[in-house]
Every structure is written in structure tokens, then in C-alpha cells.
């Protein structure tokens, strides 16, 4: 009799016999078959056998094609050596099972879930003929997908479960094919004919291949599934989606890493289908071949007509016994002895129900912090951030080999302060070590929590300056706050033109400086209080513009020293008030130009000393009013030039004392009006020289006294007229002229005719009076006056 169960492998010789096997298959599960093998007369190197390919075949003869299971040997065990033969136990798994042996931590960016699955399958050794993606839905590219401390299989499984993708295996003639799908339309029928329901007792083989039992279990469902999340790029957007079920109660899932309400609805629908796929489960048992997960079968001849329908196999357990004893079955597989050569236990759902795998694969959590460095697309002295201030980060656990900013998505950085317009952010440059946490522990949601120092990027505060508090940027801008007792200070520095602000301990307790331009601006008042001395050093030009009123109050003496030219221009009226004495000293030339009216009001003594030349030019009218006495002292020459009319009005006495010579030159007329008496006293000779006619009129008494000689020369006529003449002489007088000669023998002359020569004559008396009552004056026989 030919064997029903056979096993072929490069690790075992062809004479190897299958005594029994037990296996389990399920959708989204890597099947496992434990095969008991009997080998007579030969030994097998169990270590070398691991990894070899193998095929378990259930041969149905000519009635049907063989029912095969391909795979590799995950383990080989020598159970017992009975001398005549050896008993081995080999575990057959699909090639894809090898991905469970891996363990990786890596980041995928800007890829879709199918892209990740296919990349890992190829990396795991599966060729193009070893898998197939039979996907109906479209899958967008994701910014950041992280595999963290998990096998490639678990990583693929949890991503697929979240997206509603599941897998099963096709068994070809030579090898298994892994199929990923997301739609019930991908499931085909495998059994060549419908599966018969025949409730016969165990061991009854009269019905042939059939299901002897077919149970139905219905489970309660929730009434609704909600998926909610938060999108920081659209904070006001309500990210929420829901899907209805036929039961009671809500299931609310938050933090599913969805960005839009549409995504929320999609994921809620997948979760609802996950629950609905387990609402009704059918379980059948019997010697029925050709049932496989992912395939559809028809059930017939069930007394409940509704059960005679299409079903999708989601799980199946196989048990085959070709020659094993009951003890071997119990020892090898932990099952009770059975007379059945083959027994299948199948779990199925209605084909009309869309299957979704349960989310059983653990989603890894990162509960602590991980480290990395800020990345960027290029070497740059500046932070490489996006419009939201986010960073690319090379996380150290990432095994990927992408470079220049391609190893992560944009990652936010938590800040100590923020708000609608307020905030704080010190940008990090490429290569800066950072620590990250993950929202909800989800590896796909990293956030930078801070920067960390290392040997290449040391701390700005170390043991050498442990009393300082420092903020320093990459361009060496810094703020230093010294806490050392007795030396506390704050220093702010920008290397551009060595600009700095120093507060506290130091040569100056307040020092603001720069090597270039400076500017102080206040939109309102500016108050500067200096409680002691103030020194300003300006090496260039000073320009001060005051749009409003300007007031300066100095309560102590003021000294202003200008070592060069001083120009002051005032566009409007100027009032200078000195409430006390003014001492103004100018050691060099002074020019004052007043293009309009100038009023100078001095209410107290005013002393002006000019130790050198003083020039004053007034192009307009100049009026000086002195409400008190005025004294001008000139120690050198004093020259007054008036190119126009000059009027001097003195309402009181005028006294002029001239210590040296006095010259008065008048190029035009000179008029002197004296409303009172005039006294002229000379200590030396007095000369009055007239180049033209001279008229003098005295209304009143005219007195002239001469102590000494008085000589008057007249080239023409000199005529003195009086209403009466009285001459009194203390001694004899003789008047002589080239024309006349008058001799007085007595002290009095009355009404005597006086003849003057042609050259004229002058009568001088000393101690004499001349009285003219009636007189006649003739010159050359001509009567001039009588």
C-alpha cells in the first residue's frame, strides 16, 4: 500500500517515512507543520538540516491532485533512536517565516506601506515569484514610519493589520507564494467540489471526505467605532471619523496618527470590519482535504439550508496519522490517540463578509528618550528647518543608510515657551545631538525634547566656568550671567563690530559699546538720570535734532570747552537769560551773525573781556538798551566805523576821559545839540582847526578864560558881535594890527570906534571886561557894524 503522507527534503534521504504530522494555518499567520519522520539505517545531521527546503504531500491518488505544503525546516529534532530506526521531528514553515528571526530598528520616510512590505520581503530573501501584492486600495506615502526593536515579520504584520491588509499562502507545484490583499475579491476556490456535511461518528469513513460537524458561534459587537486625533499643522481641524456597527456601545480610539477626518473615517471603517469579521464564526471538523486559509469553499447537504453557502477559510488545523502509535501522538503533539488518518478542523466566516485581521501584533512603545543628531541636506553654519521650525533628525537607532536629511521626516522641537505670537526657539545646527520622545510612545510620532552635549559639541558651562550661566549661538553671539559672589555681572555680546552690553561688576558697571554705528530710539519719553559725573567723548561730528521744545537746567557751574570752531544755528527766536553774572571769554576770533532781530536782556552785571581782536558786524538795525550803568574799558585801540548815520542819545550826563590823544574826523556835517551846559577841560594845548566857514552862535553868556597866551590867526574876517561891549582891564592894553592900533590908557573903553586891519585882529583880555554900548566897526573905511 502506497503512503498517503510523504516528505521530501534535501536534508533527509528519500526512504524517510512520515509517521504523523500536525499543522496549523491561518490568514496573516506563518503556518507551522510538525512532521514526525522515521529513518531506518541512516543518520541525519540535524544542525545541517535546519534551513533546508522540504515538502509535505498528502497524496489522494488519481482521484484528486496532491495536497502539498512547501517550506523550509525551521528546526529538526532527533526525538529517539531505537537502534533499528531513528525518530525525528521536523518543523516545516514558509520561507517568509525567516523574517521572524530578525530584529531591527529603522526609519522609513516618504514611502507607502506596500513599498515597505515589498522592500522587506526582498531584503528577507524572497524573490519576485515568492510573493504577490493583490491590493485594491490606494495607499499614500507616509512621512515617517518607524520599525523599533521588532522583527521584520512583526513590523509588516502590525502595519498590515492597521491598514486592513492581510496575507495568506498559495501552494504551487514547487514552492509557496505569499499573497497580500485587502479585498475579498482576491479569494478563490481551491476544493475541486463542494464540501459535504456528514455528521458521522469518529472512525466512520463511509462518507469519505466531509465535515462531520459544523458549528456556528455568534458574538456581540459594539455599536460604533470612532477614531480621533490631533493635527498640529491644522490645530482647529477636528480630526474625527466613525463607522457604524449593529451592536451597542462605542469604541473610541485616540492617537491613531491620522491627519484628516477622511483618514479618520477610513481607519474607523477598517476597525469596524475587523469587529464584524468575527461576529459569526463557523467551525467544522472532519476528514476534509483541500481547505486552506484565504480560499473559499461551498458547504452542502447541511440540514440548515442557510448554512449551505460560501465560506472563507480563515484558519485550519491539520492532524495526520499514518503509522504512529497513540503514545507517539501524545508524546509528539500532545493530542489524544485517534483512529483518523487525517482530520481537519476549519474556522470560516461567510464569504460575503470582508475579512480584516485582528490587531494582535504588538505596536512597540518607546517610553523613554532616544538620542540622535540634527540632520540636513547640506553642510551649513545655520539651522536647516522648514516653515514650521521643524528639523530633520538622524536617530541613532536607525539602521538606514540614507544621507543628507533623508533619514527622517520633519520633527517638531518642544520649547519652554510658546503661544499665538510669543515663544522661544534657539535653532539647532546640523550635527547637534538631541534627545527625542514619542507621543503616546508611538515610534511614528517623534518630538525633540532638547539638545545634549558631547565631547565634540561640549557644554558652554563646564568645571572651568561653573559659576556662569551661558547662552551662546553658533556665530558666537552670547549672553553671559556670572553668579560668582562679588563678581556678578551680565554680559551680552555680538561679534559683529564687537558690539556688547555689560551690566554689573567690572571697570564700568554699565557699558554699552560697538565699533560701528549706534542708535537709541524711544517712541515716547526718554529719561536719563546721572547721580554723579557724566563724560561724553565724541571723536566726530555731533548732530542733535530737537523737534519739540528743548530745556536744559544746570544747578551747578557749567564749563564748556570747544577746542575747534563752534557754529550754532537757530532757525527761530532765541532767548538767553542769565540770572546772575556772565563771564564770557573768547581766546580767538569770534563771529556772531544775527540775520534777524536780537534782544539781549541782562538784569545783572555783565562783563565781557576780549583779549584779542573783536569784530562785530551788524547788517541790520542794532539797538542796545542798558537799564543800568554801563562801563566799557578798552585797553588797546578802539576804532568805531559807522558807514551810515549814527545817533547817540544820552538822557543824562556824559563824561569822557581820554588818557591820550583824541582825534575826531568828520567827513560830512557835524551837529552837536547841547540842551544844558557844556564844559571842555584840556590839560594841554587846545587847537581847533577849521578848513571852511565856522559859525558860532551863543544865546546867553559866553565866557572864555585863558591862563596864558591866546593867539588867533584869521586869513579872512572874524566878527564878534554883541549888543553891548564892556571892557575892563586890570592893566594897560594895547591892541595892534597891521591895519589898526588901539591903545587904552584907562581900564574902560566906551563907544570908541575900533578899526581892524585887512588881516583882521583878535582882542584878548586877561582880567579885563569889554563893554560895548554903542560901537562902530570899520574895515578899510567901510562900516561893518555901528
UniProtKB/TrEMBL annotation:
Gene3D superfamilies: 2.30.110.50, 4.10.220.110, Baseplate protein-like domains (3.55.50.10), Gp5 N-terminal domain (2.40.50.230)
Pfam families named in the record: Phage_base_V (PF04717), Phage_GPD (PF05954)
Domain of life: Bacteria
SUPFAM superfamilies found in the cross-reference section: gp5 N-terminal domain-like, Phage fibre proteins, Phage tail proteins
Family matches, as InterPro entries: Gp5/Vgr_OB, T6SS_RhsGE_Vgr_subset, T6SS_Vgr_RhsGE, Vgr_OB-fold_dom_sf
Gp5/Type VI secretion system Vgr protein OB-fold domain residues: 389-452
Signal peptide interval: none
Family from the record: Belongs to the VgrG protein family.
Protein name: Type VI secretion system tip protein VgrG
Protein's organism: Polyangium spumosum
Biological classification of the source: Bacteria, Pseudomonadati, Myxococcota, Polyangia, Polyangiales
Gene: tssI
Amino acid at each position: 500500500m502506497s503512503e498517503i503522507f510523504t516528505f521530501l527534503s534535501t536534508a533527509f534521504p528519500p526512504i524517510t517515512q512520515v509517521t504523523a504530522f500536525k499543522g496549523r494555518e491561518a490568514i496573516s499567520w506563518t503556518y507551522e507543520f510538525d512532521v514526525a519522520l522515521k529513518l531506518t539505517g541512516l543518520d541525519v545531521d540535524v544542525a545541517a538540516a535546519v534551513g533546508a527546503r522540504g515538502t509535505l504531500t498528502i497524496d489522494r491518488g488519481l482521484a484528486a491532485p496532491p495536497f502539498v505544503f512547501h517550506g523550509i525546516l525551521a528546526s529538526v529534532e532527533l526525538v529517539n533512536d531505537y537502534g533499528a530506526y531513528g525518530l525525528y521531528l521536523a518543523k516545516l514553515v514558509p520561507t517568509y517565516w525567516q523574517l521572524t528571526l530578525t530584529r531591527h530598528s529603522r526609519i522609513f520616510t516618504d514611502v507607502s506601506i506596500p513599498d515597505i512590505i515589498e522592500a522587506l520581503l526582498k531584503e528577507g530573501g524572497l524573490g519576485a515569484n515568492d510573493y504577490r501584492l493583490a491590493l485594491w486600495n490606494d495607499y499614500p506615502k507616509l512621512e515617517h514610519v518607524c520599525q523599533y526593536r521588532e522583527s521584520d515579520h512583526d513590523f509588516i504584520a502590525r502595519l498590515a493589520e492597521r491598514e486592513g491588509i492581510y496575507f495568506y499562502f498559495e501552494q504551487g507545484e514547487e514552492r509557496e507564494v505569499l499573497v497580500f490583499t485587502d479585498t475579498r475579491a482576491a479569494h478563490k476556490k481551491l476544493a475541486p467540489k463542494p464540501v459535504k456535511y456528514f455528521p458521522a461518528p469518529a472512525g466512520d469513513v463511509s462518507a469519505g471526505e466531509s465535515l462531520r460537524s459544523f458549528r456556528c458561534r455568534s458574538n456581540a459587537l459594539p455599536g460604533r467605532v470612532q477614531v480621533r486625533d490631533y493635527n498640529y499643522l491644522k490645530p482647529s481641524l477636528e480630526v474625527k471619523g466613525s463607522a457604524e456597527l449593529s451592536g451597542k456601545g462605542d469604541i473610541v480610539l485616540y492617537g491613531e496618527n491620522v491627519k484628516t477626518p477622511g483618514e479618520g473615517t477610513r481607519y474607523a471603517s477598517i476597525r469596524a470590519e475587523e469587529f464584524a469579521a468575527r461576529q459569526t464564526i463557523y467551525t467544522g471538523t472532519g476528514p476534509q482535504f483541500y481547505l486552506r486559509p484565504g480560499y473559499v469553499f461551498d458547504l452542502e447537504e447541511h440540514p440548515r439550508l442557510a448554512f449551505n453557502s460560501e465560506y472563507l477559510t480563515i484558519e485550519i488545523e491539520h492532524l495526520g496519522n499514518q503509522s504512529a502509535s497513540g503514545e507517539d501522538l501524545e508524546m509528539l503533539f500532545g493530542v489524544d490517540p485517534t483512529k483518523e488518518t487525517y482530520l481537519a478542523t476549519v474556522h470560516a466566516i461567510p464569504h460575503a463578509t470582508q475579512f480584516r485581521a485582528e490587531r494582535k501584533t504588538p505596536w512597540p512603545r518607546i517610553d523613554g528618550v532616544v538620542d540622535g543628531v540634527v540632520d540636513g541636506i547640506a553642510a551649513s553654519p545655520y539651522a536647516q528647518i522648514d516653515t514650521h521650525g521643524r528639523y530633520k533628525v538622524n536617530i541613532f537607532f536607525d539602521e538606514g543608510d540614507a544621507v543628507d536629511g533623508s533619514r527622517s521626516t520633519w520633527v517638531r522641537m518642544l520649547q519652554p515657551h510658546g503661544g499665538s505670537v510669543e515663544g522661544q526657539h534657539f535653532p539647532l545646527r546640523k550635527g547637534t545631538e538631541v534627545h527625542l520622545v514619542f507621543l503616546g510612545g508611538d515610534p511614528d510620532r517623534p518630538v525633540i525634547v532638547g539638545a545634549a552635549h558631547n565631547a565634540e559639541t561640549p557644554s558652554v558651562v563646564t568645571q572651568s566656568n561653573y559659576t556662569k550661566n551661558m547662552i551662546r549661538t553658533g556665530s558666537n553671539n552670547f549672553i553671559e550671567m556670572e553668579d560668582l559672589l562679588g563678581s556678578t555681572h551680565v554680559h551680552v555680546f555680538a561679534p559683529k563690530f564687537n558690539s556688547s552690553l555689560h551690566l554689573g561688576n567690572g571697570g564700568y558697571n554699565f557699558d554699552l559699546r560697538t565699533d560701528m554705528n549706534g542708535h537709541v530710539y524711544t517712541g515716547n519719553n526718554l529719561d536719563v538720570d546721572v547721580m554723579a559725573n557724566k563724560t561724553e567723548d565724541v571723536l566726530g561730528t555731533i548732530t542733535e535734532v530737537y523737534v519739540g521744545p528743548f530745556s536744559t537746567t544746570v544747578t551747578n557751574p557749567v564749563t564748556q570747552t570747544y577746542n575747534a570752531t563752534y557754529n550754532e544755528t537757530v532757525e527761530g527766536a532765541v532767548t538767553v537769560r542769565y540770572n546772575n553774572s556772565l563771564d564770557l571769554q573768547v581766546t580767538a576770533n569770534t563771529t556772531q551773525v544775527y540775520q534777524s532781530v536780537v534782544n539781549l536782556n541782562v538784569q545783572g552785571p555783565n562783563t565781557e573781556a576780549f583779549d584779542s581782536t573783536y569784530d562785530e558786524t551788524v547788517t541790520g538795525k542794532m539797538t542796545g538798551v542798558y537799564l543800568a550803568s554801563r562801563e566799557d574799558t578798552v585797553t588797546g585801540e578802539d576804532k568805531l566805523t559807522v558807514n551810515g548815520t549814527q545817533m547817540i542819545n544820552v538822557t543824562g550826563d556824559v563824561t569822557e576821559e581820554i588818557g591820550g590823544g583824541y582825534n575826531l574826523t568828520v567827513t560830512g556835517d557835524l551837529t552837536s545839540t547841547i540842551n544844558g551846559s557844556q564844559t571842555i577841560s584840556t590839560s594841554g594845548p587846545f587847537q581847533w582847526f577849521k578848513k571852511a566857514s565856522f559859525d558860532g552862535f551863543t544865546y546867553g553868556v559866553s565866557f572864555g578864560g585863558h591862563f596864558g597866551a591866546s593867539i588867533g590867526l584869521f586869513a579872512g574876517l572874524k566878527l564878534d558881535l554883541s549888543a553891548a561891549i564892556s571892557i575892563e582891564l586890570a592893566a594897560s592894553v594895547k591892541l595892534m594890527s597891521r591895519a589898526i592900533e588901539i591903545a587904552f590908557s584907562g581900564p574902560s573903553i566906551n563907544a570908541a570906534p575900533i578899526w581892524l586891519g585887512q588881516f583882521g585882529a583878535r582882542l584878548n583880555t586877561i582880567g579885563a571886561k569889554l563893554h560895548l554900548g554903542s560901537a562902530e566897526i570899520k574895515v578899510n573905511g567901510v562900516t561893518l557894524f555901528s
